[in-house]
């Protein structure tokens, strides 16, 4: 299956890529991991000015009125840049869940039982939500305690609240599936960035008087990583086309599995070709490695998504696989 982006969609991706390149996201991520949100909020405001924070919201609510395909493009570029913060919650989950939400520069995070038990960046968020079957609450009187996280820039918090305001929420399962799809797109972006870093490194590093990238074994490792990423990409695009349909959840799970495994393989390959320098926190690769490991297990573990896909196929084996 081959998906070709329309010119407007490619322009959107290119614009975001240039915004992130100019914004020094590595420096912003380092400050964000220490609780300094100034640079991040300036960048978030820039994204709001472009309409990214309301990409799927209808125009009457201040959004762009675009669909899941454009959402995945935005989150793939966020992943390529390694942008920290609750971007999946703010761009994918809550806009689909809250029918009264309007496009703005507010930072929103959420707990989604049972798959997201801790709120991301709760101390820096403007709004914190608790989402469960049949109930979506905006928490008030919030207190939090920092939890350990594999990724320093992925700041997790145990949240307690003295009260909560019930808000009218749409179907949680559909919003969760959109967040799963967003996570898959983010992982796909992470994978492509790590592959680019690895390719650049092997073309610069010399061994036996030749660039390491000229050796056949290195080429094979990088080609295998690219192949996995290219197989994951149409699954992400296909799941974006079926989002909201009867089989949208199954397709989102398949996309998350494929993108997570492709990013994981690319992370291992990139670390191998970088050598010891890839382990150091000062190198840009390290930031992407830790985020890949964390997101691969977030928004549903690989085991949970495999079981979901298997259950869907076993109970309805005649359903079409992939996009219409």
TrEMBL record:
This is Acyl-CoA dehydrogenase. Keywords: FAD, Flavoprotein, Oxidoreductase. Residues 7-85 form the Acyl-CoA dehydrogenase/oxidase N-terminal domain. It comes from Saccharopolyspora mangrovi. Residues 176-313 form the Acyl-CoA dehydrogenase/oxidase C-terminal domain. Its cofactor is FAD. Belongs to the acyl-CoA dehydrogenase family. The lineage of its organism: Bacteria, Bacillati, Actinomycetota, Actinomycetes, Pseudonocardiales. InterPro entries: AcylCo_DH-like_C, AcylCo_DH/oxidase_C, AcylCoA_DH/ox_N, AcylCoA_DH/ox_N_sf, AcylCoA_DH/oxidase_NM_dom_sf. Pfam families: Acyl-CoA_dh_1, Acyl-CoA_dh_N.
């Amino acid at each position: 299956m081959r998906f070709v982006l329309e010119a407007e969609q490619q322009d959107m991706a290119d614009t975001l890529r240039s915004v992130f390149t100019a914004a020094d996201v590595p420096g912003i991520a380092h400050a964000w991991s220490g609780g300094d949100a100034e640079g991040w909020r300036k960048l978030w405001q820039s994204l709001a000015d472009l309409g990214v924070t309301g990409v799927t919201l209808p125009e009457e609510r201040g959004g762009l009125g675009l669909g899941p395909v454009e959402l995945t493009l935005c989150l793939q570029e966020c992943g390529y840049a390694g942008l920290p913060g609750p971007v999946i919650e703010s761009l994918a989950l809550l806009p689909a869940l809250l029918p009264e939400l309007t496009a703005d520069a507010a930072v929103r995070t959420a707990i989604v039982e049972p798959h997201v038990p801790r709120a991301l960046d709760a101390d820096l968020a403007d709004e914190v939500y608790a989402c469960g079957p049949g109930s979506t609450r905006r928490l008030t009187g919030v207190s939090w305690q920092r939890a350990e996280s594999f990724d320093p820039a992925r700041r997790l918090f145990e949240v307690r609240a003295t009260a909560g305001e019930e808000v009218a929420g749409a179907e949680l399962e559909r919003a969760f599936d959109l967040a799963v799809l967003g996570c898959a797109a983010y992982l796909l972006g992470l994978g492509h960035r790590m592959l680019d870093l690895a390719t650049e490194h092997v073309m610069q590093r010399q061994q036996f008087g030749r660039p390491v990238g000229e050796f056949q074994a290195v080429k094979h490792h990088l080609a295998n990583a690219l192949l996995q990423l290219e197989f994951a990409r149409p699954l992400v695009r296909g799941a974006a086309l079926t989002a909201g349909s009867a089989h949208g959840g199954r397709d989102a799970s398949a996309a998350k599995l494929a993108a997570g495994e492709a990013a994981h393989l690319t992370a291992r390959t990139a670390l191998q070709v970088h050598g010891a320098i890839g382990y150091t926190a000062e190198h840009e690769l390290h930031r992407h490695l830790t985020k890949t490991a964390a997101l691969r297990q977030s928004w549903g573990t690989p085991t949970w998504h495999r079981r979901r896909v298997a259950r869907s196929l076993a109970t309805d084996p005649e359903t079409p696989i992939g996009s219409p």
